[in-house]
Write a structure and sequence with these properties.
The complex is a heterodimer of chains A (80) and B (205).
Chain A (H helix, E strand, L loop, with lengths): L2 E8 L6 H12 L3 H14 L1 E7 L1 H13 L3 E7 L3
Antiparallel strand pairs in A: 1-2, 1-3
Chain B lengths: L5 E3 L2 E6 L1 H18 L13 H10 L5 E2 L14 E2 L1 H6 L11 H26 L4 E6 L3 H19 L4 H5 L1 H4 L3 H29 L2
Helix pairs in contact in B: 1-4, 2-4, 4-5, 5-8
The chains are: A alpha+beta (80), B mainly alpha (205).
């Protein structure tokens, strides 16, 4: 069985940690603790899966992350 | 002089002098040019769905970068995209694994988002200096615009690694770059102050 599609946010040297956290809270409506944990995962591990679901929905999320200036990609389906 | 952002009742506000206001307005026009978007006239309703569709459909018309090479007449020949474009449009980053359709969609859809954000901020800054305020539903436009300004300056300064970001001053090898580095740090502080004001607002104080 294939894994669900995932929206992955990648670390970059420019976006502020506080900004990344704000984007996660503002767009995904994460609570403060989750948003901070995801942001720290991006910062410390270089990437974080911020959403899972249908391909269409994940594509929408990736485009939204790009609109905020974050590096984001789509992963999943049958390619894992 | 620019003050930090603060939330006050239904709105957010900050203080700014005329010189800082003029600089920001100029930078936003430059930002729109680099991103290849055209800011609308004052009388355009950016909430109009048809207008938004037009912007998305139009797609960005990126600025070309003025390269150092020159043609036979000695004229500089712009041949490549401005490097800042790659910071403003993450879908252009070939290091990010995206299929071609999603890359195209993302590029196209970003156009309308950026025009709306830049237009909101420019409109607020176009009034007299002093205290400038804007409603809560424009916070996102301010976040996106200030962050995009940082992204462009980061591209100009050559920030590509965490080490660069932590030592911005070391990257500045000219007076112009020194000014850019100082402004980059100032913008970072200003954006962070808006994030903090937004968080205080969410917590109810």
């Amino acid at each position: 069985m294939s894994r669900p599609w995932r929206t992955v946010v990648h670390d970059d040297p420019v976006n502020l940690m506080s900004y990344v956290e704000w984007v996660f809270r503002n767009y995904f409506s994460f609570d403060a603790a989750t948003a901070r944990a995801k942001m720290l995962e991006v910062h410390n591990r270089g990437r974080s899966v911020v959403a899972e679901g249908s391909r269409d929905m994940m594509e929408t999320h990736v485009q939204a992350m790009h609109s905020y200036g974050l590096q984001a990609s789509l992963e999943g389906g049958d390619d894992q | 002089m620019i003050s930090s952002f603060r939330s006050s009742g239904w709105k957010f506000e900050f203080d700014i002098d005329d010189d800082s206001r003029s600089v920001l307005l100029q930078l936003i026009d430059d930002l729109a040019h680099i991103a290849g978007v055209e800011l609308p006239d004052d009388d355009v309703d950016t909430s109009d769905p048809l207008w938004q569709l037009e912007q998305d459909f139009a797609g960005p018309k990126f600025a070309l970068y003025q390269s150092d090479s020159s043609d036979d007449d000695g004229e500089a020949t712009p041949t490549t995209l401005d490097p800042a474009v790659y910071y403003l449009y993450p879908a252009l980053n070939e290091g990010i694994d995206l299929d071609d359709d999603l890359r195209r969609q993302s590029m196209s859809n970003l156009n309308g988002v950026k025009v709306r954000a830049y237009t909101h901020v420019k409109s607020r800054l176009s009034g007299p200096a002093g205290t400038i305020s804007f409603p809560e539903d424009e916070v996102e436009s301010w976040m996106v615009t200030l962050n995009d300004l940082r992204l462009v300056i980061a591209a100009r300064l050559g920030i590509t690694e965490d080490h660069d970001a932590e030592n911005v001053g070391d990257l500045a090898d000219s007076d112009t770059a020194q000014h850019q580095a100082q402004f980059y740090q100032h913008l970072s502080w200003w954006l962070d102050s808006l994030i903090r004001a937004s968080q205080r607002r969410q917590r109810g104080y």
